[in-house]
Design goal:
By secondary structure, this protein is an all-alpha fold. The chain is 59% helix and 0% strand. Helix 1 runs antiparallel to helix 4 and helix 4 packs antiparallel against helix 5. The longest helix is centred in the C-terminal third of the chain and has 37 residues.
Amino acid sequence: MRLIILPLGWTVLVDVVAWLAIHLGVSWLFTQFSDKIFNPEGPVFRIRSWEKISFYEKGCRIKLWKGRLPDAAAWFAGGFPKRSLHSKNTSYLERFVRETCRGEATHWTTASFSLLFFLWNPLWVGFMMVGYGVAFNLPCILTQRYNRIRLTLLLKKNDRGG
């Protein structure tokens, strides 16, 4: 049961403005955090034993669509562009790995805000907003995790002198 009842036009406007504010606000907020807090070995970000490149490439067919995702790094001062690899030196790759963690955390947080939409939307629209939150953030989360695996393999290759 919703707590706030608005006319349909206002509800749609609030939904659109809320999503815009959530996407931009969470993204900006996460650019303010030090990359040191995004530990790729931590419980949320560590690569799981079942996560293999083949899972993403064959199971998710990630190569077909990941290039179409936006990279909003340029929208915020201090943003780290993740569309392409600019160097293979170890410090850059380590920073890139942490930035994939930042990106993943940003998208998990953004998606979680979808639950707020139950406050002023009918139940069925609330579920649609959760669907939107998942549909628009899950591809980005998958891409961050896929890139983290690839970057980690490249770092290991660097360590071996290859």
